[in-house]
């Protein structure tokens, strides 16, 4: 496909263009040898001369540039700017299909501005100076340009540096941007998006592994989002250089961003998912505990670790093989000395309930006797430099070449390479080093060429999507090979939209209390940034945790959507029983809790997949109008019903926890506490602060050593009394196929509501799946009265036990009830 190339167009010298000297600007390019010699000239939009409408698109022109405004939905508006009025062809790895869903919109014009309005948002373009702003239907301005959009020609590579600058308000807070290892609120900071292998990264280090150019602004309780869909090295400044300005700019590509309306942060995240997609339902087993290490080998060691779990009665579903399983680190091969019969080993592990996950790196060893290299070479699938030399770099296997994952044909090929691994029974693939990382050089040079799905680009454009396209190729290939069973994938690098293909871990962290704290914030941030299935290396990758730190990390990891312990090769043994008692027992208790809550986590996953909600939710997302919540980053909710506050300091015996408004029950003691305030909570090593929102129904499976170990005969429903009506969801399906896409699932909705002397629980169902178990075991917590009668669908349940001291009511009934009344 031919692409318009703005650099081929004549560049008119327009007197109307404002020339602004470098000194006046907040942006400077220090690393450009060519531009460094000349004064940097930024050109700003001047004034729109007219407007032209084509369907849902509006074009505004000054003497030189054009701005395109696309009404995507009632709440999402896209803005693009073409310095010389030539737009790039529409293509985005983040937004696979721009679905326009808008009912009505109108264009208005007056003396001062053009205004395009949907039912909820207005986009204003000022006639005087081309400033773009957005307001809600009450005419409250939510986002406004501080300076007109601008650009700077890139003499070295062609194209432009593109800039957007918004007004930053005194109390405005900022969230999002993926995995940045810093405080949750990004205010006052500046960031770069450039995927980087960041071994033992530090607090405030930037950039690290991922590039998620999406942020949420919260000002005076009103939120909106900006998704700057640009894959080049991109920069964000949240009132750092100038406290009154928020800026985002990139070293190439288009100034293209989506304004995502709120006013609720939750809605902003939901709408971001509308653009970039959600995570597919994971295989149920992947919600269990995973054990990893660099590396478990030979086979006898793998078996020993697996047996350790079963002997210690600590549940585990996934076991990982790091790079040493390969022959000389050649992807898709086996070291036969360490693993003489992988098929047999994987089968035996599977019989004992373990899924085997193997690592794969993008670097392919230059070796004519190695089939993967030979095929890739013959088919011309490896990346090349601008002058056609191969992109070569050293990684684990030695001298390597790298597949161009931005080429759909290469992705297809890569997908087929997993054939043997799938035949051997491998259930998951761990995609590492895909920033891409290269020893010494760090990554590829800028001039490496990429096919970019037919749109072509240098590494400047493809760098940030390389890893995402690798894991996409892996995921799609595995899905085909596994005959539509859900594959499990994990990646280190990523770009917006990567959640459609994979889970992520936060990379090479450190066994320190600071990193435990950092991991907590990173997982919350990833969740708000559209990456729900995330976790840290439990225990810390490098360094040595003591028993206390490891246990505190297991406790936090129990509430990470992805739960995996991992450690570097030069560290001591790091299994949940490695630290002796009391640690082993506490680790077991928490991993068991993880398994009990799998149906709850899975239901939360469904809410993510179907509705675009994040799994972890920082407190500020629940009460965004509480200014104090802007700085809270320790506690979060897991789904919307369980509030978790990890313990992140050694020797801590109690800590303050903020509970959002409403009633909460202590998870450990069922004590009723009114929220909207901080409470002091005891934090002995055996527990962390956990609270359940009143009115919740939390489904619980019996503890198993791995998912599917036993047939489930009964599901426990923990029902927490509330007077105010409250909804809960309970999702189930086969847990391993894509049948849910054809409505083969069961989504139950519970509504709990109480009165001082009665309590009602209603259930309704949707979907075509019927679980095999027959019974619910009810555990009703916090009844404020002594129950004397339970009526279920008109029939009286006579067999119940009430603990008057703990206020717990216990009884059983079939799962297909419609209404249960307790009085
Ligand atoms: O250069 O495969 O982040 O989890 O154990 C190190 C070995 C390569 C980096 C990953 C880490 C993994 C390690 N890898």
TrEMBL record:
Q: What are the residue boundaries of the Glycoside hydrolase family 31 TIM barrel domain, all occurrences included? A: 280-603
Annotated ranges, domain Glycoside hydrolase family 31 N-terminal:
66-237
Q: What is a single Pfam family found in this protein's UniProt entry?
A: Glyco_hydro_31_2nd
Say which family it is in.
Belongs to the glycosyl hydrolase 31 family.
Q: Which residues form the Glycosyl hydrolase family 31 C-terminal domain?
A: 612-698
User: Mind telling me which InterPro entries this protein's record contains?
Assistant: DUF5110, Gal_mutarotase_sf_dom, GH, Glyco_hydro_31_AS, Glyco_hydro_31_C, Glyco_hydro_31_N_dom, Glyco_hydro_31_TIM, Glyco_hydro_b
- Name all DUF5110 domain ranges: 715-782
Query: Source organism's superkingdom?
Result: Bacteria
Q: What is this protein called?
A: DUF4968 domain-containing protein
One GO MF annotation is:
carbohydrate binding
Q: Which UniProt keywords apply?
A: Glycosidase, Hydrolase
Q: Which GO terms describe its biological process?
A: carbohydrate metabolic process
Q: Which organism is it from?
A: Mucilaginibacter aquatilis
